[in-house]
Amino acid sequence: MTLRLHNTLTGAKEVFAPLEEGHVRMYTCGPTVWNFAHVGNLRAFLFYDLVRRHLNVAGYRTTHVMNLTDIDDRILDQAMHAGTTIAEYVKPYEAAFFENMASLRAERAEHYPRATEHIPEMVDMISTLIKHENAYVADGDVYFRIASFPKYGALSHLDRAGLKAGARVAADKYDKESVSDFALWKKAHPEDEKLGAAWDAPFGRGRPGWHIECSAMSKRYLGDTLDIHSGGVDLMFPHHENEIAQSEAANHKTFARVWLHSEFLADATGEKMSKSAGGFTTLRDLVAAGHDPLAVRFFLIANAHYRSRVRLSTEALHAAAEQVRRLREFADRVKRTPAAETDDGELAKRTAEVRAAYREALDDDLNLPQGIGLAFDHIREANAALDAGRVGALNKVALLALIDDMDAHLDVIRAEEPGLAAEVERLIAEREEARRSRDFARADRIRDDLKSRGIALEDSRDGVRWRRISRVT
RNA sequence: GGCGACGUAGCCAAGUGGUAAGGCAGAGGUCUGCAAAACCUCCAUCCCCAGUUCGAUUCUGGGCGUCGCCUCCA
After folding, report:
1. At A172, is the pLDDT very low, low, confident or very high (cuts 50, 70, 90)?
2. What does the alpha-carbon distance between residue A99 and residue A107 come to, in Å, rounded to a whole number?
3. Protein CA at A268 to nucleotide C1' at B11, angstroms
């Protein structure tokens, strides 16, 4: 089983092997905590989660770093309007980010470095770049000299001529040598002091530019060369391109060996969801509309391949919720069904084949949608076998192994249900009483009532089962 | 203007040079007090045109359409 990943740098799927045997160093671009993350942001973050989970499945230990950008122009603006410091302004959004990640069941990264806590590392790197003449000071600001880095544009495949032809580069008010030179350090303005957004540096008091934090913090936690660097496609240019320029000019080493970029999420109109464009949807919005975070998770990682665009829609979320429901139902059924006398040997063999095929799909550039499709096909077969009483002890073990394989990525199957409220339990008992006395009208009334409150009941030979259901139809 | 992606059933979506996984929705059944769940059956020739080929949805060219990046952006 060979893991192959699509490397943006080469535009091809490549066999993946980390620099250090058995250990993957991975840096992923995290949130700018100036606002609540929208579902598009969350898609990227869950993509990182999928990557790290599959690396673990493939037997690698991971050191995963995800930065928190807690200083940038938007934060400065907002903090100013709010009359507070950037550190205070950012707090609730940072907390919301971690809440989102938890309810979407993303595994925690090993490190979540904050930009403002790594100013010295950035200052060091900028000093090195100035010394090497890859950067220059202009009126208190420091810029990276793109002319000093011939490889610039290799990742995004944009050449300098193309950039100029864009003609959208604003007329610059600063003394940059070239319009495409980008800021490493911005001179402090008086108002920055009140916001707590100014630091001393050999080249003048100020604050860091956006890109330098990733170069400095990845070096601090992962060293000069990363195995994997990933982010949304929209970070490819200029952000990732700039990171490469800074890091490689400063360290004289390959910065990241593999670049993974996840496609964006579109809103209902089919256009990219973005904060600046106005309308965007947060996890909180979806939950308020009755969607289960587990369905949102499934939708974001399993509905479509990470390199294809997806459109957020109620229908798609509902389909995702149904798939989650089916998976959970199946897992539950396999677990609670007593082993049959007969064990269908063919079924066990097929289960092993499906497990292998599932793994292969994931190894092929993380094709989770394909893997899920294969699994669902088999689940139908397994359900039929359960109906027919052909699932014995061996088959149960095999099927549970398949479920575990899937849940290693999905993590929506074994996620535990919230406990039953005492009142709901009482109502179920009451309904059972009504059924025993054949008062079906009353029994149905109770069931309907529970359903409207998001609890579905199923009568079966071995008792009443309940489960939470999506309130969205 | 430059660079790029995509266009598969009502919806979402995987995929391959040899006549198209899966999920949702829908229809009909089995089971059940009724439901639900589960299972069974039904439901597409892959945007258009031309070319390469024994054969293309899959390769090449053109067209149409949608979208992205080139500017803050996951």
Report:
1. very low
2. 12
3. 13
